[in-house]
Specification:
The structure is a single chain. It is built from nine helices and eight strands. The protein is α/β, with parallel strands linked by helices. Strands 1, 2, 3, 4, 5, 6, 7 and 8 form an eight-stranded mixed β-sheet that branches.
Length: about 260
Amino acid sequence: MKIELVLGSGAARGIAHVGVLRELEARGHEVVRLHGTSMGALVGGAYACGTLDRFEEIARSTGLRRALWHLDAAFDGSGVVAGRRVRRLLRVLYGDRRIEELPLPFSATTVDLTGWEEVVLTEGPLAAAVHASIAIPGLFAPVRSRRRVLVDGSLTTPLPIPTERDPAADLLLSVSALGAPEEAARLGRRPPRFMPGILTTTFDILLHSVERAAIANRPEGVHIDLPANITNNMAFHRSGDVIDAGRRVAAAALDREGL
């Protein structure tokens, strides 16, 4: 089946998108167009340019110390993390590939702080587009491009579902890695007590509300929710387990849909 795939935000939980893609491959489905925001753009960009194997290798081999090493400090007040090491990692993954030259149509969603508007990048350097899409405000310094100041696309569009399905696709499949607040309560998760947990949980709830509205407004297609208990937002050192969990959830969801 030809699939138009939408991969949403989710920080470390978004690494599970790798497992979703592996399950789609194993079942013989073909992704013909890919839309990504934040971690969905990072994983989707690797898939679109044919370097998902390299991405998974890096993700599975990254321990806690290595994950923290990528967070180089910023000193200009634009964010906690400067992003120099992140840019280096993106160059390793994507090289100098341009979006419009990729074998698979791809878009990365960002937000322009200058115009207060969503910006969907469908051309230009892939590494720069993905860097902008993952630049969480306050944590990462924004990416400046011409007159724009670009940050993480999940501010406005945590799940970039298109308004119209690609005519080349048989199915529109969207995948959320946010997890749902009601699911967290069902799983008996304790509420956060300290500032980092309070902030990330608050942000997740806001994004979840925006995401549900997007799904409700465009109900066609199939949607997969990756559960909140896969991991926490910043546990990048557990990426191998997260990828495996993503594949298990995708397999169960696709079985239910007869896919």
